[in-house]
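User: Please fill in residues for this 298-position structure.
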């Protein structure tokens, strides 16, 4: 991993929110309720345990990762994962990036691995049903986890993901299923690739990148079309190694936003569609994938 690639991975999030938050205000909204020491650093997270949690029954774990210049509570409010957690009975955790503005780096894979271990020591987590997802820089981090923690992460999801790590550097222990959502009018991470309004970076063309991601999983080269829902189209790559399907939902005119989630100012990030719910669709996708016993970390 080159220093350039490490630098690129941290970008592609909602840096546009930064001017709206002073340090004092940020300290108030950046609430967490858990911490651990990882690689000698104090790391924090926001945990939600559903009221139906039964310590005698293994529960799935969903890791939801905020974008660049965001924070755990904002990811919670944007995605509405807690509502689904209460309805379905899984635990959800929102880890916190480092620095100000907060960000994710390649090195943070160790923190996420330590976080999983930490939660497994305190809750009855089903080790075959641990999932990661995120927004923008958090989506890129989810992809990274699929590359580096394939022995612990059953499936990944991404919204408006910033994928700057070359696919050839992704060498997972097993094919990892992936579901992604991206708007065609994303002003931060362009659907058509190349530099954006905010970043002079060579972002990949999203449909091409997803096709290559499917090839990494050994999927059939020709995807099938998913039912159109208003301005939403989708493709699904199947016949993959280990049944590790890859799905891409395209939101025509959609912005750098979470479909079905809390809307951000449209003049900053574009349209937030309510025609589909990314959180619900991710969970339905996750439910179909469990970590094979042969690859589960002891």
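Assistant: Residues filled in for all 298 positions:
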């Amino acid at each position: 991993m080159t220093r350039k690639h490490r630098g690129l991975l941290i970008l592609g999030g909602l840096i546009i929110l930064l001017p709206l938050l002073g340090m004092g205000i940020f300290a108030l909204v950046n609430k967490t309720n858990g911490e651990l020491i990882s690689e000698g650093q104090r790391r924090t997270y926001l945990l939600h345990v559903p009221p139906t949690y039964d310590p005698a029954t293994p529960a799935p774990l969903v890791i939801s990762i905020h974008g660049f210049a965001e924070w755990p509570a904002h990811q919670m409010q944007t995605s509405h994962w807690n509502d689904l957690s209460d309805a379905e009975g899984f635990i959800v955790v929102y880890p916190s990036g480092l620095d100000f503005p907060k960000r994710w780096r390649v090195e943070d894979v160790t923190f996420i691995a330590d976080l999983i271990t930490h939660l497994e020591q305190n809750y009855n987590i089903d080790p075959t049903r641990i999932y990661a997802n995120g927004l923008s820089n958090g989506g890129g981090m989810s992809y990274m986890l699929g590359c580096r923690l394939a022995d612990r992460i059953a499936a990944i999801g991404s919204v408006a993901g910033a994928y700057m790590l070359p696919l050839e550097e992704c060498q997972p222990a097993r094919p990892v299923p992936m579901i992604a959502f991206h708007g065609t009018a994303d002003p931060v991470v362009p659907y058509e690739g190349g530099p954006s309004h905010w970043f002079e970076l060579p972002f990949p063309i999203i449909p091409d990148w997803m096709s290559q991601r499917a090839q990494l999983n050994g999927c059939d080269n020709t995807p099938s079309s998913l039912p159109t829902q208003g301005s939403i189209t989708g493709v699904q790559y199947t016949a993959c190694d280990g049944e590790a399907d890859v799905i891409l939902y395209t939101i025509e005119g959609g912005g750098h936003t979470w479909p079905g989630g809390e809307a951000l100012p449209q003049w900053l990030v574009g349209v937030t569609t309510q025609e589909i719910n990314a959180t619900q669709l991710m969970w339905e996708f996750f439910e179909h994938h469990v970590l094979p016993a042969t690859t589960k970390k002891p």
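For context: Residues 1-26 have pLDDT under 50 and may be disordered.
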